[in-house]
């Protein structure tokens, strides 16, 4: 991407629509840019208005094949601050072709020592839009004050400070949507169309769905577990 000091407007098509998160980590059967491009094309065919993608190779490959807006991130590790943990990661995600860069905005120390506000200001100077992934109401308010262009509930359920619930944190969506001027993104454990609709009703600007659409191994495991519950010990070979 060509860096410019002019920050673009948020892609208008995101409002009220579905963003499909297409992610497969190393070791997952669908890992790799080829599969992510195919998933992204399938999402587009199904009516998605945007995509959420992890990693420079996947972002670049999908950017060249699909014209939908991309929320990009770079997962580096899987503990603490691992979603786009430094300014360097964020700039690389933008350069790979993301329209919006998602980053951890939980308030935990960032690896490069920059504050969230400093990180966002640097990205804005480069014309990059920022989605703040938060886990609590307080983090969402702080992220908006730090200048985030979008605030997402992505990390609710993944920090000690947030509720450990099996479904989406619609209470957090509702509270943030009522309090913030910036758009709120509902993300995390949304697994049915009814839950996606409920997120919009709760005030979400857009809804991100990942595993319920793009992780077939996890989906298969749900069905297998349901059938296994009917299996008696005598049925075992
Ligand atoms: C916590 C974390 O690292 N979330 C990641 C963020 O990009 C992804 O692993 C999720 O799949 C994504 O948030 C969509 O959520 P779900 O797959 O539950 O619909």
Automatic annotation (TrEMBL):
EC number: 5.1.3.9
EC main group: isomerase
UniProt-listed Pfam families: NanE
Protein name in UniProt: Putative N-acetylmannosamine-6-phosphate 2-epimerase
NCBIfam families from the UniProt entry: PRK01130.1
Function: Converts N-acetylmannosamine-6-phosphate (ManNAc-6-P) to N-acetylglucosamine-6-phosphate (GlcNAc-6-P).
Species the sequence originates in: Kitasatospora paranensis
Substrates-to-products reaction catalysed: an N-acyl-D-glucosamine 6-phosphate = an N-acyl-D-mannosamine 6-phosphate
UniProt keyword annotations, A-Z: Carbohydrate metabolism, Isomerase
Pathway(s) it belongs to: Amino-sugar metabolism; N-acetylneuraminate degradation; D-fructose 6-phosphate from N-acetylneuraminate: step 3/5
InterPro entries cross-referenced by the UniProt entry: Aldolase_TIM, NanE, RibuloseP-bd_barrel
GO molecular function: N-acylglucosamine-6-phosphate 2-epimerase activity
Family that this chain belongs to: Belongs to the NanE family.
């Amino acid at each position: 991407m060509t860096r410019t000091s002019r920050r673009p407007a948020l892609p208008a098509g995101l409002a009220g629509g579905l963003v499909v998160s297409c992610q497969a980590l190393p070791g997952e059967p669908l890992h790799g840019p080829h599969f992510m491009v195919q998933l992204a094309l399938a999402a587009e065919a199904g009516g998605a208005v945007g995509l959420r993608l992890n990693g420079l190779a996947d972002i670049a490959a999908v950017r060249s094949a699909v014209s939908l807006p991309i929320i990009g991130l770079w997962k580096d590790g899987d503990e603490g601050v691992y979603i786009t943990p430094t300014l360097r990661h964020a700039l690389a995600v933008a350069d790979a072709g993301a329209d919006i860069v998602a980053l951890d905005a939980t308030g935990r120390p960032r690896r490069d020592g920059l504050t969230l506000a400093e990180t966002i200001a640097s990205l804005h100077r480069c014309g990059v839009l920022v989605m703040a992934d938060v886990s609590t109401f307080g983090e969402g308010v702080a992220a908006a004050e730090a200048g985030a262009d979008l605030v997402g509930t992505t990390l609710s359920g993944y920090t000690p400070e947030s509720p450990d619930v099996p479904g989406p944190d619609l209470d957090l969506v509702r509270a943030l949507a009522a309090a913030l001027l910036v758009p709120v993104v509902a993300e995390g454990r949304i697994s049915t169309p009814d839950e996606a609709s409920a997120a919009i009703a709760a005030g979400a600007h857009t809804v991100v769905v990942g595993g319920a659409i793009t992780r077939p191994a996890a989906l298969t495991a749900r069905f297998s577990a349901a059938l296994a519950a009917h299996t008696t010990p005598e049925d075992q070979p």
